Amino acid sequence: MRLHLLSLLPLPFLSLALASQAEQLVMNAKQAPEYVPQTTSKPTLADLLTIEPSASIFYSYAREVELSELFSDTSGRATLLVPTNAAVMALARKP
Q1: Is the CB of residue 74 less than 8 Å from the CB of residue 44?
Q2: b/e string for 16-37 if b means 16 or more Cβ within 10 A?
Q3: How confident is the model at residue 36 (pLDDT cuts 50, 70, 90)?
Q4: If you compute the radius of gyration of the chain from its CA atoms, what whole number of angstroms results?
Q5: For residue 66, is it left (φ>0), alpha (ψ between -120 and 50) or beta?
Q6: Boundaries of domain holding 57
């Protein structure tokens, strides 16, 4: 068994030796696009629900059913009525 494992040792070095220089692309800093993160001046509903502890159960359910994708609207024209954790816990079953 040890002999079998030792035979696997030279595989990475063999693949490096077989790699052709012609097949490799050199990326230069002038060609690579500069990364610009998306920033907004206002928080989204998703941001606010993430930091609000009294709505954490609702938001975890919303993430499970992918409803939370609707909360990323940055136009600021949405109103969301969110039940508190106590209201969700008082339900007979999970929504």
Answers
A1: yes
A2: eeeeeeeeeeeeeeeeeeeeee
A3: confident
A4: 26
A5: left
A6: 42-95
